[in-house]
């Protein structure tokens, strides 16, 4: 497969320009406060941990040690277990804000340990990125700049250790981020070359609808969005990451890429400016969504849980 082609480069450029424009146009949210955010941390963490425990009992195995058993987990409980991530980020951010730094590290370790048992690396990276962003934004506020740097370095070390650990347990060769991004770029380049610079797309929203219909939340196709992408490029029924602009492009063409970039830019620009104004209540969700935004550059926004986070973020910055 080829690397980045003219078509894929042009589409990424359109998305980036649209995102930066939206970010610049974003305005701070109103003065309404959301102190309830800080009360949600432990309930979310507890519900997620309980769902994970029930799922492990259901399959009578730990997916980290037996990856094949992950397909036998109850999907609904697996999704609920992901609530460990926002719960942990809220708890960790609150601890850092009140200078309980050891407690913050404890929440981080607890969250990464629980998520790693399920064998999901994306959620681990989201937790570590979100924690790092919370530490960064709190520098000079709840914690000192030096402490923020130390914790960001510690979070990065934990991320590396967990990544290596998961790979070793799965008996897979170590896979670098560069290799993953190169493969994803090749996938999108194939899509872009197949469809050219189509203005309004080819599938009219079917792939986006499959994010929900594949979970039987709404009527529609039972095939997930990443499987759709695999079939489009002739890779069978596997799961393929299409980049953040893959789904908007196939469904809605250049218009979809442009609109997606502007909307995401407006959302994160508004959140960032609200946070800079001093509205600290938005910090945990801002850090969480920023973490997933970075990760979805490769994976694409193709998961219901990520859509829920973005909708909650939108409500806070309106």
Quick tags:
318 residues; mainly alpha; 2 domains; 13 helices; 0% strand
Q: What is the topological layout?
A:
Elements: H1 6-25, H2 41-59, H3 75-81, H4 84-97, H5 101-117, H6 121-137, H7 145-170, H8 177-195, H9 206-213, H10 225-232, H11 246-276, H12 283-299, H13 304-317
Q: Brief overview, please?
A:
By secondary structure, this protein is mainly α. 68% of the residues lie in helices and 0% in strands.
The DSSP helix count reads 13
Tell me the overall shape. globular
Fraction of helical residues: 55-70%
The span between the termini is: 43 Å
Q: How do the helices and strands follow one another from N- to C-terminus?
A: HHHHHHHHHHHHH
Number of domains: 2
- Major pleated sheet: none
Oligomer: single chain
Unreliable spans are: none
Radius of gyration from CA coordinates = 20 Å
Q: Please tally the β strands and state the result.
A: 0
Strand content is under 5%
Mean pLDDT: 82
Query: Helix- and strand-based class?
Result: mainly alpha
In words, what does this structure look like?
By secondary structure, this protein is an all-alpha fold. It has 2 domains: 1-29 and 180-318, no CATH class; 33-175. The protein is 68% helix and 0% strand. It contains 13 helices and no strands. The protein has helices at 6-25, 41-59, 75-81, 84-97, 101-117, 121-137, 145-170, 177-195, 206-213, 225-232, 246-276, 283-299, 304-317. The radius of gyration is 20 Å and the shape is globular. The N and C termini lie far apart (43 Å). The model has no long low-confidence stretch (mean pLDDT 82).
